[in-house]
Amino acid sequence: MEIIEILKAVILGIIEGITEWLPISSTGHMIIVDEFLQLNMSEEFKEMFFVVIQLGAIMAVVLLYFNKLNPFSPTKSKKEKVDTWTLWFKVVVATIPAGVIGLLFDDILNEIFYNYQTVSLMLIIYGILFIMVENRNRYKRPAVDSFSNLTYKTALGIGLFQVLSLIPGTSRSGATIVGAMILGTSRSVAAEFTFFLAIPVMFGASLLKLVKFGLVFSQAELIILLVGMIVSFLVSIVAIKFLLRYIKRNDFKAFGYYRIGLGLIVLLYFMLIR
């Protein structure tokens, strides 16, 4: 196996680690990158790789929030353990809509919507939504500023917004963060709940792709996959910490403008250059 393929996996891992958590669409970036940086692997492997590489990103959430998400922690009081279980139940409730729709229609949705026109449009639309929501909320105090007052109804509502992320270019984190803020959550609650929602959603998606691929890898395929996951894990730790620090002092408008710019670049590239 050539060293260049490993370097490609490193670059893809970096892109995944950044774009999975920042609400800027990993799909939009992968479409552009795939034009110039194509893995010399089978189409079946690449389809699986771009999903399963997310496991590295998920492990970053598990590591950073292990104590907060661990209901068995000996350092927690009985009430804290109950609160942790309650948080997990809310995550499960919010996961159901995307889980059901994804299982039933994921292949159909990808077949219909996985194209540069849709990805560009979703990048731009959600970029505009970020700006509009931030402008609307500028002088409003969020109704939900902690997980203790995040109701099951609100959690389900966020889960319904997550369904929209099944359309490529939307961004899972983008859809859930916009939805959470529309429903009255603070930026920090919206971002962290998005991180937690990713755990069952992305574990499930990765498992399905692995089973579909067949769980049989050549040595080269295994190395490429592991490199991508490890790099994604390391970069995700940095990206998550950055986002949490950023939103303490800033709003999401910058991501909105970035999405609009990227959407236009994708659209113009495929229309005029490719």
Please provide a written account of the structure:
The protein contains 12 helices and no strands. The chain has helices spanning 3-19, 26-36, 43-52, 54-64, 66-69, 78-113, 116-136, 152-163, 172-182, 187-213, 219-249, 253-273. Helix 1 (3-19) packs antiparallel against helix 2 (26-36).
User: First CA to last CA: what distance?
Assistant: 29 Å
Which structural class best describes the helix and strand composition? Answer: mainly alpha
Number of domains: 1
Overall mean pLDDT stands at: 91
- Low-confidence runs: none
Helical residues, percent: over 70%
Shape category: globular
Order of helices and strands: HHHHHHHHHHHH
Give a brief rundown of this model.
The protein is mainly alpha-helical. Helix content is 77%, strand content 0%. The model has no long low-confidence stretch (mean pLDDT 91).
Question: Tags for this entry?
Answer:
mainly alpha; 274 residues; 12 helices; single chain
Topology:
Elements: H1 3-19, H2 26-36, H3 43-52, H4 54-64, H5 66-69, H6 78-113, H7 116-136, H8 152-163, H9 172-182, H10 187-213, H11 219-249, H12 253-273
